[in-house]
Amino acid sequence: MESNFCIYNTLTRTKQRFVPLHEGRVGMYVCGPTVYGDGHLGHARPAITFDVLFRYLRHLGYKVRYVRNITDVGHLEHDADNGEDKIAKKARLEQLEPMEVVQYYLTRYHKAMEALNVLPPSIEPHASGHVIEQIEYVKKILDSGYAYVSNGSVYFDVPKYNQDHPYGKLSGRNIDELLATTRALDGQEEKHNPADFALWKKASPEHIMHWPSPWSEGFPGWHLECSTMGEKYLGETFDIHGGGMDLMFPHHECEIAQSVAHNGHDAVRYWMHNNMITINGKKMGKSLGNFITLDEFFTGSHPLLDQPYSPMTIRFFILQAHYRGTVDFSNEALKASEKALNRMLEGYRRLQELAPSDTSTIDVSTIARDCYEALDDDMNTPMVIARLFDALRLVNQVKDGHASATQADIDELRRVFDTFMVEVLGIRPDTIEGAGDNAEALKPFEDAVDLVLEIRAKAKASKDWATSDLIRDRMAAIGFTVKDTKDGAEWSLSK
Known about the structure:
Elements: E1 6-9, E2 14-17, E3 25-30, H1 41-59, E4 63-68, H2 86-94, H3 98-115, H4 131-144, E5 147-150, E6 153-156, H5 158-164, H6 175-181, E7 197-202, E8 218-220, H7 222-234, E9 238-244, H8 248-263, E10 268-274, E11 277-279, E12 282-283, H9 294-299, H10 311-319, E13 327-329, H11 331-351, H12 367-376, H13 381-399, H14 407-424, H15 439-461, H16 465-477, E14 480-485, E15 488-493
Parallel strand pairs: 3-4, 3-9, 9-10, 11-13
Antiparallel strand pairs: 1-2, 5-6, 6-7, 7-8, 11-12, 14-15
C-alpha cells in the first residue's frame, strides 16, 4: 500500500515520506511515563501527539503495533547515573513498597489517559518485568567491546564507541566538545569518562529495588530499558520511535548507541519528537511552583487555574499547535480553546439536524482532501482544525437558511467530521463543556434545554411576551444564546 504521509525525521532533520519496513505494518515505540507521581500537562502532550499518529496510521489502513513502556525502576534523580531511584525515593518517603507506588500512579495515569481519549497502546511493557532480557542485552554489549565493568557496575564506553560510530548524531551534539568539557561528578569515579553512562548499576545496601546479575546485585540503567523492550516487541529494526524533545539527549542518543553496539546497526528508521509545554512563558517544573497535574486541570484545584478544564479542552488545546512547536499554557489560552471547542461541538450537533434541499449552494468537495493533505504534511493538526471550522461555517449557513445543501453534501460533511474530528483527532462529540463525558450524560442536559424552549414557545404562542423574554434573558445570563428562526427557536452555548 502507498500513502503520501510524510514525517519530520529528527535524525535526518528533514521531512520524509513514510515507508514502513514491512508493507502494511508499522512498528512504533514511544517512551512512556516514570510512574512516581501524577501525570501532568507534559505527559499529556506526547500521549496525545502519538495517539493521533496511531489513529491516523490505522485510518490509512496500516496494522500498527504500538509499544509504550512504563518505567518502574532504574530512573534516577536528575536523569543521571547517581542519586536515588525516583520510585524508590517515593516509596521510602511514603513508607510503601515500590510496586505499591507504581500501581497507584499507573492506575491514575491510565484514568487520565482514558479521560483524554488516548487509546491504549498495543503493548505496555514494564521495565521491572524485563530485567532478564536487559541483563542479556548488557552481556552482548560487553562482548562487542563497547562497555566495561567497574566495581560491580557496567558502563557504556562513549569515547570508544565514538571512534567507530557518530555519538551525538540525533541531538547534533559535538561529542568531542562534550567529552572535553564534561566534568567528573562526585560518586562517578568508577567511570572511565564522565560522559559514559550506566547499563547496570550496583545497588547500594539501602537500595530497595535490585536483582542478581553476573556483575552485582543491582538494577538496569534507564536508557537500557527502552532499547531492550523496543527490540523484544518490535525487532532489531522498527519504523518509528517517539517521545518528548527533552528525551533526545541523553536518553534517545544513548538508545541509538546501545542498539548499534548490540546489533551492529541502527534500530529506528524515523525518530519523532514533540516539543515542550511552558506555563506563562516559563518552563513547567515543581521547583518553580507552576507544576500542574492533569487531575488539577480537570478539577480546577490548582491556584494558577481560574476554573476547571475538561479533558477534551486539554486535548483540543494541545492539538491546536503543531506537535513540533512549543505550547504555552495560560488561563486565557485554555479559555479560548474551550470556547473554540464548544463552537465545534455545537456545530457538530447542528450538522446532525440539517435538512437536505434539492440543490446545493455550498462546495464541500475539497474539505476532506485538504484535511488529508494537512495530516500527510507531518501531522499538521492546526490546519485540520482550521479546515473543520471552515466546514462549520457551511453548516451554520445551511442551518440558518442562508445556504442549501443536498443530502449528498450533508453526508459528506458528516463523513468529514466523523473521520477527522472524531476518529483521527480523537475529539469526543458528546462533551459540550459542563455536560459530562458521554452521550448518556449529555442527553438530559439537551432535553432540559429543549423543555425550557418548549415552555417559551408556548408563552410566545399565547402572547405572554414577558415570560418569553424572561426565559431568553435568563438563558443568556447563564451562557446560552437563543435564536428565533422560521423553524422555531435554536440554542447554542455562548461561552
